[in-house]
Hints:
The chain has 6 helices and 7 strands. The protein has helices spanning 30-40, 53-58, 60-73, 86-97, 137-151, 168-179; strands spanning 7-11, 19-24, 46-50, 79-84, 104-108, 126-131, 156-161. The chain has a 7-stranded mixed sheet, sandwiched between helices. Helix 5 (137-151) links the parallel strand 6 (126-131) and strand 7 (156-161). The termini are far apart.
Amino acid sequence: MQSSAKKIIHVSGLPGMPLVCALTEFEQNAQDIADFMQDLLPDFPIIVVAADPDWIAHNTFKFVRFIRDQQTHLNAAKLIMIGRERAANSLITVLNSEPSLFSDLILLNPLDWKPAPANLNLTGKRILITWNTPLKTEDEHRLQAYADSFRALSARVFWNVSEFSGDPAFEAQAMRTFIA
């Protein structure tokens, strides 16, 4: 996968801790995301993957195999996946094809999305949806429909919306509470 992703950053953590995989479409953001995640979750092994969302959509099997190999190598009990905006949409593509891959999913400001297939079983999965920009009525309805679609598939959905535009402390607190 190394040749297909723009950049992959590994941060060590304690053995047996959950593996955190953050997905970004921007190579220049990868190191900042790794640093932020390491400050937020210092004991967790972290992988940041910078890859084009269209590449993920067309190479889901390859991406899933890479993540499973990392999880096995690190002896991680569970996998927490994180994505922002278009990267969050890429995680939905992965969820639709491999729901068993992860136990927790964090979607930060998810953009346009397609509902998960009705036959998908998300029992035991936890999903956090955050939105940290001013929320318009149409965005609120869209995000509520998003959360309801996951709930209909038996996922436990957590919803955090901030009135404070672009407040990174809001997202950090929401993720810390969700992961704890």
